[in-house]
């Protein structure tokens, strides 16, 4: 007997409950992907296509627990013309592992979408109207949303029958009160141009704040956490009882902490000064603050490993860059402690937060009055697991909590699709 599934596939075998999710993170010249099995939330494969459109494109595909698992990464080099070709190449690699995207086991494709504005506070099944709204947000996310849209269109063409789910970087921050979200500028101008603080890295802040509560053995509702997401991009958030009440990135990911290549907070008059006095164009200032500032602007390196190595060799420029980075971080910890009133935990995450013991030690040093301390022995332990690094006597827990944005996107996309799916495949032809 032929069994129609809710996704339009036809199968003569026993119906397979769709249980896989493909997560896509599409950048302007790259696509990262992961395929997960949501029955045990294991990763079946992951991959990266970079330098799309150039002669030197590269695809690295890593089979994991599923088909081909343990075989090690495979690489393709040579021009991959566009996102369409990139996704097709990824699909071929997955198919070679027995994980083809045409499989009825695929339940959804989850897309990381950077800017969801105020409208999207939860994962959303992508319809034409949703796609139009993501397009309307391009002026506030000119670098990211166009690439995300391309990724969505490409995936839709590949599997038009499948639910495509957008998971927004901004969604977790939509709970911020107006007092935190509004800039103190003319309200009419702000509203006309949708100028307000949206925040980013929300999927990571949501995941890490929840995991931190779990680590403390408490419900998210009972815990106040300061999350420090320190990657190449970096942001802090204050999460009260599971809800974000403040975050350091604003209209764009430029505001807040010192980052790999971005300045973070700066007097906006610096922009007028650079234009009027230094004769720079708007685009030049944009590039300066987004690409040639932060750690790279201060010392020429944005990789914290390299900066620490230089400091150990006595490099003063690297030491000053590190001090500026830490100073800003401390200011945010103090500010967010004041915003929250009571802090239960400070959680470090992302590339720097998870791996750099010196950054964690320096950021918390001198904050004993706030109940914060780091145990040197615990801080030195290297592990991929969530862990506490504060001494037992400390009033506030300090934790290292590895982030997992792909798992969070897959969880959110799958939960949404499951909630919309008719229960049991046998019932759909009633
Ligand atoms: P993003 O996703 O923003 O590109 P990641 O979260 O992957 O960034 O973080 C990348 C950064 O993490 C690198 O630029 C580097 O500074 C830092 N990093 C990675 N590994 C280590 C390490 N072992 N020690 C210190 N810093 C590290």
TrEMBL record:
Cofactor: how bound: Mg(2+). Can also accept Mn(2+).
Cofactor: Mg(2+); Mn(2+)
EC number(s) per entry: 2.7.2.1
Entry GO terms, CC: cytoplasm
UniProt cross-references to InterPro entries, sorted A to Z: Ac/propionate_kinase, Aliphatic_acid_kin_short-chain, Aliphatic_acid_kinase_CS, ATPase_NBD
Major place of residence: cytoplasm
GO annotation, biological process: acetate metabolic process; acetyl-CoA biosynthetic process
Family affiliation: Belongs to the acetokinase family.
Annotated HAMAP family: Acetate_kinase
PANTHER family: ACETATE KINASE, ACETATE KINASE-RELATED
Name of the protein: Acetate kinase
Organism annotation: Streptomyces arboris
